[in-house]
Amino acid sequence: MNRQNQQWKPNVTVAAVVERDGSFLLVEEQTDEGILYNQPAGHLEAGESLLEAVIRETLEESAWRFTPTALIGVYQYQQADSGITYLRFAFTGELSDHEAGRKLDTGILRALWMPAADIRANRAKHRSPLLMQCVDDYLAGRRYPLQLLHTHN
């Protein structure tokens, strides 16, 4: 196949934006750039719906069971260093069971709760600018029905 016919594809990711008592669920993770904060988030896997992905990623990274209730937004972000483009689907929803003894994904040091003001004050430790953008959009009341999403098998 020649280069003209190759189709470029972004990395599709999902994120859970969960607020409880004025604080947001974050994960602290070891990255090539050091220890950084992010929402529970990760890549869409083959054969998986966006909703299945955000439920799985939230459990794997935070040990919380997550039920999505709304889409906050869809975000396109190109990482400056690598040039990789991410297409993020951010959801809000409810947490239920916490599996305190669950082993977290490789690289995830811990899940924690942080107020929006502290998240904003720690921008230098954000995995990407999408972390704060998603929190800001959540705080602005952006909620879109999950019926916007369709998975055809």
Low-confidence stretches: none
CATH superfamily: Nucleoside Triphosphate Pyrophosphohydrolase
Task: Please give the count of helices.
Answer: 3
Averaged pLDDT: 95
CATH class: Alpha Beta
Please provide a written account of the structure.
- The two termini are about 30 Å apart.
- The protein has 3 helices and 8 strands.
- The chain has a single domain, classed as Alpha-Beta Complex (Nucleoside Triphosphate Pyrophosphohydrolase).
- Strand 6 (about 65-80) and strand 7 form a beta hairpin.
- About 25% of the residues are buried.
- It has helices at about 50-60, 115-120, 130-140, and strands at about 10-15, 20, 25-30, 35-40, 40-45, 65-80, 85-100, 110-115.
- The longest helix has 13 residues, at about 50-60.
- The strands form 2 sheets. The chain has a 4-stranded mixed beta sheet with strand order 5-1-7-6, sandwiched between helices. Strands 2, 3, 4 and 8 form a 4-stranded antiparallel beta sheet that branches.
- The protein is about 20% helix and about 40% strand.
- The mean pLDDT is about 95.
- The chain has about 150 residues and is α+β, with helices and mostly antiparallel strands.
